[in-house]
Amino acid sequence: MSAVCGIIQIMIRFTSMQEIILRCVAEQPGVFGSSELAKMLVGSKSARVMVWRDHPDYGRLADQGRKEVGGAIDSLVQQGYLALDLHRRLLPGNARRSTNPHESSPID
User: Which domain holds residue 81?
Assistant: First the structure.
């Protein structure tokens, strides 16, 4: 048996699209709804999203469809990597919650 027999480490690999989505939400929790984030990332020209045109990730996923990006966001919510607050804004989810009891969680 291995010396690390009692330790199980799970490595999660995210696609580059998922990493961009997770980073955006982690940097600005509670700012974007799912649809708004997808539109911002694909570079939508809608008036509501144009306020984000100076965001470093605006249009970053322009080569992807809004529905594909939205599906990736929904999948991350379903898997617990993202959560929705009471106003349906995206937050880092339970799967990313710190195990440090002194660090507050954005979903508590």
Answer: 16-96
Query: What's the pTM?
Result: 0.76
Treating both helix axes as pointing N-terminal to C-terminal, what angle do 16-27 and 34-42 enclose, rounded to 10 degrees? 120
Sign of CA dihedral 9, 13, 18, 19: positive
Q: Is residue 1 part of a domain?
A: no
Cα–Cα distance measured from residue 26 to residue 81, given in angstroms and rounded to the nearest whole number: 10
How many structural domains does the chain have? 1
Provide the token pair at 16.
């580059």
Element (H, E) at 92: strand 90-92
Written as one letter, the residue type at 72 is A
When the pLDDT of each residue in the chain is averaged and rounded to a whole number, the result is 82
